[in-house]
Design a protein that fits this description.
By secondary structure, the chain is α/β, with parallel strands linked by helices. The chain has 16 helices and 20 strands. Strands 10-13-14-9-8-15-16 form a 7-stranded mixed sheet, sandwiched between helices. A 6-stranded mixed sheet has the order 5-4-3-6-7-18, sandwiched between helices. 39% of the residues are buried.
Length: 488
């Protein structure tokens, strides 16, 4: 299927129309935002069948994955519909008494016109969740879905555009040329999900206009299998997290560290669980997806080609025409091999044996990944991982499932990206928190006026340190006034 790309010459006009719509203040009423989110939900519910057909076309998407994406979007809609008014409430802030009778608060205001660039691996969820957050915050949005998932990208253009206000929401289909044209324009916010290489290009382009940006990137997500764990439960969670969507998940385990005393048992257990989940011929399993393109599949093969065949202990079955790459296990590949240096993003899982876990924490686990997964019952080790490692998420005794938790912010750190979203964090990400100081002209503390004697300066510095809510301060003054009146 081939996408109908938008003529590059029309992109500035699309941007200008969105800018005009935002300046009309159409997106500011909370009622308008809520209605748009309700329409997104309506679009999803009424057109599920056509979406699933598109998802199967692009990735041979399984029913489970498609349903999970769908439910994530529906739940995000429900969350925003229920909580939008409370999320948008102004928040009072304590003000130093030296500014009496001032009050302070913060409000959330939309950035303006937002560019969302989404990837191909979860094309619905990773397009619609940012869209929901951006609209909830009162922005106009231009969504640029991936050209590598043409059926789902076309579905978003054809169906979502029928429901959401066209003046405030536009979809642009295209590839490198169209994306480059988009990045030359002055956006008020850019939200990108994808790889680190393109993420750096986007960050550079955003810097030209001082545009705030969220980058949701990937990473070499490590897994630790500690001694004393329930191996059957742990391996089942590991295998599902790694091979769902054929390993093409940004939070999927990238490689596994196993204590040397249990490495053989772990490998055998992983093999058995793969067969249990996907049969001994995963190519025929309805639960096993495909690689997105032949180029991506060939890139995965470059990880294995240089290795000693003895290190490939399971799988490595490829059908280029079917875009099939079997679940593949690799044992202790060289540390200088590309498989040990790069993000894999496919169904290849390397295992590395270790003897000293403390040394592992101080070296390999210092890389800032999107997620670190640790299967361990050792409370001291869990505390060390929480305090001595840095990652977007630390998942203890589970893998992948943290992305289903709406109350946990999703995002990376360092090379795995920056910025967070999901639920209230989406609303905050796409909003500028503006500070407001409100004072009265009816009263002026003498402390604020020259001449500034040493006594005045001392009092100013004392009062400046006190940061209490103004209603408390007024209550104290009222109490002192009444008390003084009674005494006198």
């Amino acid at each position: 299927m081939k996408l109908q790309y938008l003529d590059v010459s029309r992109i500035p006009d699309v941007h200008a129309n969105l800018r005009r719509a935002f300046l009309s203040k159409k997106t500011l009423p909370l009622s308008w935002r809520k209605t748009q989110i309700q329409k997104i939900k309506q679009c999803l519910i009424e057109n599920w069948d056509t979406y699933f057909e598109a998802a199967k076309h692009d990735l041979k998407q399984t029913q489970l994955i498609a349903r999970l994406e769908f439910s994530q979007c529906i739940e995000e809609c429900d969350y925003m519909i229920k909580n939008l008014y409370s999320l948008a409430e102004k928040q009072k802030c304590p003000i130093p008494p030296v500014l009496f009778p001032a009050s302070g608060f913060t409000i959330f205001e939309p950035y303006g016109v937002v560019l969302v660039i989404s990837p191909w691996n979860y094309p619905l969820q990773l397009s619609i969740l940012p869209l929901i957050g951006a609209i909830a915050a009162g922005n106009c949005v231009l969504l640029k879905p991936s050209e590598l998932s043409p059926a789902t990208s076309t579905w978003i253009l054809d169906y979502m555009s029928k429901y959401v206000d066209k003046e405030c929401f536009q979809v642009v289909l295209g590839a490198v040329e169209e994306t480059s044209a988009l990045l030359k324009l002055p956006w008020n916010y850019i939200f990108y999900t994808g790889g680190g290489r393109v993420g750096r290009i986007i960050a550079h382009a955003a810097a030209e206009h001082l545009t705030p940006t969220t980058l949701e990137l990937g990473g070499r997500n490590p897994v630790i299998l500690d001694r004393g764990i329930d191996l059957d439960v742990s391996i089942k969670r590991l295998v599902l997290a790694k091979f769902v969507n054929c390993g093409q998940t940004c939070v999927a385990p990238n490689h596994v560290y196993v204590h040397e005393s249990m490495i053989e048992e772990v490998i055998e257990t992983v093999k058995n669980v793969i067969v249990e989940f996907y049969t001994d011929d995963p190519q025929k399993s309805s639960d096993y997806s495909r690689i997105i393109t032949k180029d991506h599949l060939k890139h995965l093969q470059t990880f294995l080609d240089p290795l000693d065949p003895s290190t490939i202990v399971f799988g490595n079955v490829v059908d280029l025409d079917d875009l099939y790459f079997s679940p593949t296990l690799v044992l202790n590949p060289p540390k200088d091999a590309s498989i040990s240096q790069e993000e894999i993003f496919g169904p290849i899982l390397p295992f590395y044996s270790y003897s000293d876990l403390s040394s592992l924490i101080d070296t390999d686990l210092q890389e800032r990944s999107l997620v670190i997964c640790a299967f361990t019952n050792d409370a001291a080790l869990q505390k060390r991982l929480i305090s001595e490692t840095s990652s977007g998420t630390l998942s203890i005794n589970d893998a992948l499932t943290h992305v289903t938790c709406r109350e946990l912010p999703f995002g990376g750190v360092g090379s795995s990206g920056y910025g967070q979203y999901y639920g209230k964090y989406s609303f905050e990400t796409f909003s500028h928190r503006k500070s407001v100081l409100h004072n009265s002209q009816r009263f002026q503390l003498d402390l604020r006026s020259p001449p500034f004697t040493q006594q005045k300066i001392d009092w100013i510095l004392r009062l400046k340190k006190l940061s209490i809510p103004m209603h408390w301060f007024l209550s104290i003054l009222t109490f002192l006034s009444v008390f003084t009146y009674i005494i006198i």
